[in-house]
Amino acid sequence: MSSLLKFLPFRKAEDTSSELAAATEQSAEEKISKSLGDSDSVSESLKEGEVTTVLDPELNPGALTFDEDAAGGMGRQLGVFSFGRIIGTGIFSTPSSILGSVGSVGASLMLWVLGFVLSFCGLFIWLEFGTMFPRSGGEKVYLEAVYQRPRYLATIMFAANAILLGFSASNCIVFASNILVSSGQEAGRWASRGIALGVIFFVTMLHGLTPRVGIYLMNALGVFKIVILLFVVVTGWVVLSGHTHIKDPHVNFRNAFAGSSHSSNDYATATFKVLFTYAGWSNVNYVMNNVRDPVRTLTIAGPLGLGICAVLYLLANVAYFAAATTDEIRKSGVTVASLFFGNVFGSEAQRALTVFVALSALGVSRISGLSALNSNKGLSERHHSYFCSFSNKSRARKGRHPPPFGNRFWASNWPTGKSPLPGLIIHLIPSVIVIIAPPPAVAYPFILDVEGYPQQIINLFIVIGLFWLRWRKPNAVRPFKVWWPLAVFFLAAAVFLLVAPFLRPANKVGDTPPLPYYLYCLVGIAVMAFGVLYWAAWRIVPGWFGYELVPRKEILQDGTVVTLFSAHTKAQ
After folding, report:
1. Which is nearest to 136 in space by CA: 450, 378, 423?
2. Beta bridge mates, 566
3. Beta-carbon neighbour count of residue 418 at 10 Å?
4. Which of 450, 311, 274, 284 is closest to 368 using CA atoms?
5. 8 Å CB contact between 128 and 478
């Protein structure tokens, strides 16, 4: 329990968030000295390139202080307005799969409302953790703070999930499918795959080698998704008013629940898609080191952005159902928005407008909520590739990437000193695999399912950890405190989403045939189990041969502070 004190600085109630922000101004040397302790053996500040071995038995690679900030990188520059980037392209691609699972318009709309409620509950839970520990890393940070025994187990399990299942393929597939529709070409097996692969390699190199250019380009492209979403919503109002050639825009809303599925599996699978579309609310927690005044920014921008997003999502779905039949929507796949434009404006306008949908997907390829840097205006935006690579960097800084990822290269900002290309490459590999491996027709829903299931495992441990911390440390400073019934509801939902997918769906095959309907669950569990096995091999097996792993701190040339581990005989 003593090591938990590093995570929970006890203060008087009158301490403000400005005090927390001011604490982040310390130098890198002070941060390292604090993390190593005040003993004489580590009293000297580290100089660049110097290596110090730490023998403190209470050293925790995830130990946090409110004044910790990452050396190197772009600094704390994300503000309230950066959170307007919650909206992704899932709203243009997932409604068909959701409708196909639940079977009716009414059930589909209810799931979008439920997804909003669950996302809001999750947002408030993450706000409590994020304001307690305003530091980059997201769930990794919170799991380390709660589950300190067995040491490193929670971190490695999370790292295994993030590295092996941290896909960026979904938006690349959406781009490929829509660009083929706009060109009038058939979406062949390898045509779609080839375009998606080209996109993901392009975005990786763009952000890894020319980060500023990537930021400006993605800022510009990111505007498309907002404009298109608003355009769909407004057009939907016009369609519902009867001022278009759509004969009966209200037909889908009569007997809206007719044909609804009665299978828990179908609702769980559809919920994964809805939650994917809302997932942007949590991305800022991965780059907290870059957020100005984290407490204020999180508590204001998070609920505001998510609320606006939810209203637009619900209205967009109403627009889709007003302009197309349910059969048309089911068959549209990831090109629902393209179908909408074709039904309302005709085929020529459909091709032109679908290009903008494709560009919006490119703008959020490997993005979960844009937050890159615009230093002149104080607005920031950094792409999903950044979120995942910074999360990868955070794990690499602890030296816990599986070989060959556990070294200083993968934790660096090589080669630009500002953009973590090694982390982007780690993120690229599994994305390429899932673009190529599954059948193209089911690749997109399978990716969303296989990402969603292990995330619920993490969510379960996060919310249990929330209650555990409140019980063990009731007096810890909590700038924001979630209402406990919301946390209980979130916990119950996580349990349901972990159990229901194993129940047989109504059509007995799920939404990813010919793949077994339960395959994505097994993949998620296998990844978590791999994390446990890797932890055992890394943490326990060396002891059988008389070795122990000793941590040491090091500062890289770009200023990044890393913790590396080396094997020593126990006699040493």
Report:
1. 423
2. 550
3. 13
4. 284
5. yes
Look at residue 561 and give its three-state secondary structure.
strand
Tokens 């009293």, residue located = 43
Residue by residue, DSSP assigns 28-52 as HHHHHHHHH-S-GGG-SPPPTT-EE
At position 551, the amino acid (one-letter code) is P
Phi, psi (deg, nearest 5) at residue 205? -70, -35
Length of the chain measured in residues:
572
Residue-level pLDDT at 46: 37
Angle at 244 between CA 238 and CA 249, to 5 degrees: 75
Cβ burial 295-315 (10 Å sphere, 16+ → b, else e): bbbbbebbbebbeebbebbbb
Task: Count Cβ neighbours within 10 Å for each residue of 346-377 and write b for 16 or more, e otherwise.
Answer: eeeebbebbbbbbbbbbbbbbbbbbbbbeeee
Continuous segment of H or E residues that includes residue 373: strand 372-374
Alpha-carbon dihedral angle through residues 287, 291, 295, 297, given to the nearest 10 degrees: -110
Distance from the first to the final alpha carbon of the chain: 27
CA-to-CA distance for 158 and 230, rounded, in angstroms?
A: 36
The domains located in the chain, with CATH, are: 76-539 (1.20.1740.10)
Task: Give the phi and the psi of residue 464 in degrees, each rounded to 5.
Answer: -65, -40
Three-state DSSP at 292 gives coil
The two structure tokens encoding residue 399: 């030296």
Q: Which residues pair with 565 in a beta bridge?
A: 551
Query: 350: closest CA among 180, 174, 193?
Result: 180
From CA 384, how far away is CA 537, in angstroms rounded? Answer: 31
pLDDT at 365: 65
CA separation for the pair 488, 380 (Å, rounded): 34
Give the side-chain half-sphere CA count within 13 A for 454. 27
Identify which of 510, 506, 509 has the alpha carbon closest to the alpha carbon of residue 269.
510
Query: pLDDT, tens digit, for every residue of 179-190?
Result: 999 888 776 778
Query: Residue 45 region, left (φ>0) first, then alpha (ψ -120 to 50), else beta?
Result: beta
**How far, rounded to the nearest angstrom, does the alpha carbon of residue 209 sit from its chain's CA centroid?**
23
* CA dist., res. 559 & res. 50, Å (int): 12
CA-based nearest residue to 29, from 553, 454, 423: 553
Burial of 257 (0-12, 13-18, 19+ CB in 10 A): middle
Low-confidence ranges of the chain (pLDDT < 50): 1-84, 367-393, 395-406
Instruction: Give me 553's structure tokens.
Output: 């701190």
Other Cβ atoms within 10 Å of 390 Cβ, number:
23
Amino acid at 296: R
Q: pLDDT per residue over 470-488, tens digit each? A: 999 888 888 889 999 999 9
Q: What is the pLDDT of residue 167?
A: 73
Handedness of CA 473, 477, 483, 489 (dihedral sign): negative
Q: Which residues contact 437 (CB under 8 A, 6 or more apart)?
A: none
CB 423 within 8 A of CB 396: yes
